[in-house]
Known about the structure:
The structure holds three protein chains of three kinds. By secondary structure, chain A is of the alpha+beta class. Chain A folds into three domains: 20-27 and 459-604, Aldehyde Oxidoreductase, domain 4; 34-139 and 211-262 and 267-299, Alpha-Beta Complex (Aldehyde Oxidoreductase, domain 3), CATH 3.90.1170.50; 306-457 and 608-753, Aldehyde Oxidoreductase, domain 4 (2-Layer Sandwich), CATH 3.30.365.10. Helix content of chain A is 28%, strand content 24%. In chain A, strand 20 (474-478), helix 15 and strand 21 form a beta-alpha-beta unit. Chain A starts with 19 loop residues before the first helix and ends with a helix. The mean pLDDT of chain A is 96. Chain B is α+β, with helices and mostly antiparallel strands. Chain B is built from five helices and five strands, in the order E-E-H-E-E-E-H-H-H-H. In chain B, helix 2 packs across helix 5 (142-155). The mean pLDDT of chain C is 75. The longest helix of chain C is centred in the middle third of the chain and has 11 residues, at 26-36. Chain C is of the alpha+beta class. The radius of gyration of chain C is 11 Å and the shape is globular. Chains in contact: A-B, A-C. Chains A and B meet through helix 1 and helix 18 of A and helix 2, helix 3, helix 4 and helix 5 of B. Residues 40-43, 45-50, 60, 62 of chain B line the site of one FE2/S2 (inorganic) cluster (FES).
Amino acid sequence: MNYIDSNLKVVGTRPIRPDGVDKVTGRAIYAADTRASGMLWGKILRSPHAHARIVSIDTSKAEKLAGVRAVVTSADFPNIASEEAFVGEGPMNFRDLSANIMARGKALYEGHAVAAVAATTQAIAEDALALIDVKYEVLPHVIDVDEAMADNAPVLHDDMFTSGVTPKPAKASNIAKVVTFKKGDVEAGFKTAEVIVEGTYTTKPVHQAYIEPHACLATYGSDGQITIHSSSQGHFMVRAYTAKLLGMDIANIRCTPAEIGGGFGGKTLVYLEPVAVALSRKTGKSVKMQMTREEVFRGSGPTSGASMDVKIGAKKDGTIVAVNQILKFQAGAFAGSPIGPGCMCGLALYDIEHINVVGYDVVSNRPKVAAYRAPGAPITSFAIESALDELADKLGMDPLTLREKNAARNGSKTHYGVTHSNIGFEQVLAAVKTHPHWKTPVKTGQARGLACGFWFNIGGESSANVHINEDGSVSAATGSPDVGGSRASMGMMVAEVLGISVDKVRTTVADTASIGFTFLTGGSRVTFATGMAVTQAAEKVVDELKKRAAMIWEIQADAVEWRDGKAFPAGSNAGAFEPLDLAAIALKAGRTGGPINAEVSVNAQGAGAGFGAHICDVSVDKETGAVTIERYTAIQDVGKAIHPSYVEGQIQGGAVQGIGWALNEEYIYNDKGQMENPGFLDYRCPVASDIPMIEAVLVEVPNPRHPFGARGVGEVPIVPPMAAIGNAIRRATGVSMPHLPMSPPTILAALSAAGK
Amino acid sequence: MAKSYVSTTINGESAEYLCEPQQTLLDVLRDVVGLTGSKEGCASGDCGACSVLLDGTLVCSCLVLGVEAEGKSILTVEGVAQGDKLHPVQQKFLEHAALQCGFCTPGLIVASKALLDSNPNPTETEIRYWLAGNLCRCTGYDKIVRAVQDAGAVMRGETV
Amino acid sequence: MILASGGSCHQFTGGRTEFDVEATTFRRLILELEQKYPGLGKQIEESMAVAVDGEIFQDAYLAELKPGSEIVLIPKIGGG
Lengths: 756, 160, 80
Ligand code: FES
Ligand code: FES
């Protein structure tokens, strides 16, 4: 059923989330809060070298330390063959994932796990790490993406032959893959261009920087049954990866999702769980592991840094005729940067006749990248949206008008071949135009920037069930970990369909043994796909309730109508009966056929793309290079906001992460390839005093594929900020800002290079 | 190493524990006392997830030793509500959706309460600077600041 | 039906990006392509999504093919 034009009572309101009280009183259980009797503590030894051959590992001294119960190395994990799969948030090669959680033969980045210990206390485990004797042969390393692509660069994997080029290269290199997307004839396109802008842009890897470090508790029973409590964006993902990396049966692994303290894509793969299981198997005890913040920085995430070239050609009237874009993405130590979406997203917003995009997936001696909100899109859009701003200036055109003129509409064909349908980009731009922020003249001493962003959004596999309890209250369960209030929106959709108030619905996240397979929480898919499953489950329950009422009344089921949480006779012909509410029907459930519940599994397709535009006013202190965000507005097509507060929260949070990416966040390496700022003091995420209120404006262009019209909202808001801020700084200083982060030293350097 | 005996008050009730001399108050609260509401985000004083009040002063419990709490009174997030009645800061965090993952929330609740106890009517800027030691990666702080403003109004008796 | 491919299919097709393929189900389509360009079918199953007349199907088997449908292969999409 479709509720897009119905009169909604619950969807669109702002109730308190069902897990709220637990979270404001400290009762909510995150992974690090779990305990098991007789539990041991696991700790990981990490490589101090950016690139080194592991000559030998002697664990004997560590094993002899009192309190140490086991040490594991890669020898304790099956050596699995190269196999691509799509379990997490991007193509993943299991062999690489295995080598990432425990180095095999070579350490490929500083922080790469080489061994792990289980001991009776954390302190003993840490002492034991120092007793493990690893002999390394240090190899030359490479950090920067352009350097990693150079002919004489140290090669990380001697079996990496660039795929996507013909003929297959004869020599191994750090270029894992080349992807190309072509539309029209870009050479011919540039011949018709009257104005051309060109630029080279770089971005740095940034960490997702969830405040909760990775943690898990694993128990391997002597019967081969395993339980895992962990913090992840998908407990089914944890189960699949753990089974694969340890060569175990999925049915023997039960994963329970702990509350998750932020993920943003960084918790879409495993680091600790298989190691904890291996330690538990060796010791016969439960093993708990949690990373320190330093380990999180050195050993997990981040997203790619990149180097990009952009050339845009346009007619004098602002029509963009041709774009050439080259993107080189850092994948970290193993192939798999988000180069595909990087090549697709930046130009998906515009209807352009001739496009040529070439992307390179490049490995170097950094941690393997993990997904981070709209993976690839913020990077590519920084380049495209910055170049567009320069183009607008050259044309003497307002940056909004330039975008309006070229905006993708329904029917626009993208360079990756997909034709847009049911998109709301024009509506977003119209909302920019009429917003008071855009209409208010810029204050003296400040400047304004505008940039836009796109994300596909995804659907995929989800399961949900809805139970009518004996007293008529309702329980709903899904397989989607709740990273930001999804229990509330799931409960609201159930309540809406059942016609009851939301506080009558209890929503939980069920473990892997208690609900059907559900793909992880990411790609902005939960409200869409799991929302679809839970809505359909509620509808099935309504059908059943009508049947039960019909039985009680001894009439036909189609003579029963469901309204406001009650069964009514459909018309006067159906008979004159007092309406039956949930409690009344539940009371007779046993006598009318048994418990009333439904479980639905879907593979949701047609997620509905999302578009956003951010407006930002800044002031720049030319003495210090410091940038102050004075005013910030984020406008986005959200389809339909199920719980508007949490939709706004996604937009505000994404925008502020983007502000950090734009202004401060970066990995700083020394000449040995070691990260020098692995803590929140020196890796500077935005704090409350850095930023103003973020006004989130919700544009609602319904997505016809979702029962309530919802689109994913979590990814888009991190796409525009870097260019929006860069464009504002450029307008404030008259100097282009092609390199992130635009931290005070970068800005001062750019100003002085420009003689300002 | 011999453990130290510490006698203190936690959330209004007298409490005693044994801890290692080098153990932080955060580890003591979480691993010895069993109060896991205070979170560890960094263990270096940079994220505020471990915020507690020590004799009324806001501290990062990861930077305080367990033994330093001797004779002092500790308030953790678990002690902010009165029985089942939420503190206005807690109530307003819920109403404003000032949490997403909730991991920063215990620290922010304690820090915000401390602010309003000492400054019942803070400006937006005062709130932002006071909370600058409490990282939140999810919300972008907007709703947190509004929740604190609104909680202040309730505590001043201006609204409910 | 027309099939266009972006991204990393070229290595199997000798650089061709547009083909005419006769198939009524996606399964058939993959088999046909695998026959013409060994390795491509596997590549599609493992790491490609498909857009049929503008709508993206992450799991291509679900896509319904009609005569004259425009089918585009794109890299599978994840997210954060
Ligand atoms: S854990 Fe104490 S400040 Fe981060
Ligand atoms: S709500 Fe997740 S860190 Fe603040």
